[in-house]
Design a protein that fits this description.
Blueprint lengths: L1 H10 L18 H22 L6 H11 L4 H12 L6 H56 L5 H46 L11 H17 L4 E8 L2 H8 L1 H16 L6 E7 L2 E7 L3 H15 L3 E3 L6 E4 L2 E7 L6 H17 L5 E3 L1
Parallel strand pairs: 6-7
Antiparallel strand pairs: 1-3, 1-6, 2-3, 4-5
Helix pairs in contact: 1-2, 1-4, 2-3, 5-6, 8-9
């Protein structure tokens, strides 16, 4: 299990010297083994949080506990994959995964409620259908028996009773169906909101990588059909790790939001920005040549670089914050994926060339 592997990675190997020959812990060793497991868990959580420079908050402790106990095996697996790729475990990464996990649980809960509401609605419909058939049969029986009935008054009374029952049951069915319909509409609206939240970056409020990939596919098809230009760009904050390490994650988050806001100011129906992850953003320019997209993005870079940031916790100057970018013409490559790769390579050249610049692929 991923949780067990992580326990060994962060807490060291488990001491199995108290196990007997069969591999089972003896009765006398069980309390010590239990205490040892608890100590290993605490050590692992502590080493994980402190070793990754993560704040010791209730949310982080809860998430770390779920990871190392195996309660959240999905997140534990993601953590293993990230460590295997030698990628840092940042607060932002944890928050993003916490948000995604929360949205997935919301969607599952809403879908469960929606299915239950639809089943209730279907059952009400079936009951109404069965009742209608029953009443139709009873009315037909009364109608056929009126001619030979010696007591017409009794027959009429019986028929009136059936009609009153039909009216009463019909009102009850109508109310039940109306309630089910209202519940279903409410749940559908809640589900739509959850799906929308799944496409939004929690820190900046911008579309996330998943939403951008969907947008890119649609814009690519439409631009190709209309013979329009289409360019993609990657933007990355310069020396962001230095800002985080020196001034803390809160300041780092503020810088990320500021860059996102600056880039979003140039967006419209044909220009889009999304947060790719970490300190990186991705942009899409439709109807713009490579040079036109460059001019637009470079103007943002130049204006943003003139701002001076201050650490709000101690009023210590942070100085200028800059970003670098790489641009590519989507239709200059076999497919959008290759264009994204070219833009990423152009971004790398911008970094290598001194940062605070935009390079065209």
């Amino acid at each position: 299990m991923p949780g067990s592997i992580l326990l060994r990675m962060f807490g060291g190997a488990k001491d199995t010297s108290s196990d007997d020959a069969s591999g089972q812990a003896s009765d006398s060793a069980r309390p010590e083994a239990s205490a040892g497991a608890s100590a290993l868990l605490m050590d692992s959580i502590s080493e994980f949080l402190l070793g990754q420079n993560l704040a010791v908050t209730a949310a982080n402790l809860t998430m770390a506990h779920a990871i190392f106990t195996g309660e959240d095996s999905t997140l534990a697996r993601k953590l293993l994959e990230r460590k295997a790729a030698s990628l840092p475990i940042t607060q932002d990464w944890l928050d993003q995964n916490r948000a995604v996990d929360g949205i997935e649980k919301r969607v599952k809960r809403i879908v469960g409620k929606l299915e239950s509401s639809l089943e209730t609605f279907a059952q009400t419909t079936r009951n109404a259908h069965d009742a209608a058939e029953s009443y139709t049969t009873r009315i037909a029986e009364h109608a056929s028996g009126i001619a030979g009935e010696k007591d017409p008054a009794a027959t009429e009374q019986s028929l009136q009773d059936v009609l009153r029952e039909i009216i009463s049951q019909g009102s009850a069915f109508a109310a039940a169906m109306k309630q089910s319909q209202a519940e279903t509409q409410s749940l559908r609206a809640e589900l739509e909101k959850a799906r929308h939240d799944a496409d939004v970056d929690h820190l900046t409020g911008l579309p996330n990588r998943r939403a951008f990939e969907t947008l890119l596919e649609r814009q690519f098809r439409e631009a190709r059909a209309n013979l329009e230009h289409l360019c993609v760009a990657f933007c990355d904050i310069d020396h962001f790790k230095r800002v985080n390490d020196t001034h803390g994650h809160d300041t780092g988050d503020r810088v990320i939001r500021a860059i996102g806001e600056a880039l979003s100011r140039i967006t419209d129906d044909n220009c889009h920005v999304a947060r790719q992850g970490g300190e990186e953003f991705v942009m899409l320019f439709r109807g713009k040549t490579l040079q036109e997209a460059f001019d637009k993005l470079d103007a943002v870079r130049e204006n943003f670089g003139e701002r001076h940031f201050v650490n709000r916790s101690n009023e210590e100057p942070i100085g200028r914050i800059t970003f670098s970018g790489g641009l590519a013409d989507v239709f200059g490559y076999p497919n959008p994926r290759d264009a994204l790769k070219a833009a990423d390579e152009a971004l790398y050249r911008a970094k290598q060339g001194g940062r605070n610049r935009i390079e065209m692929a």
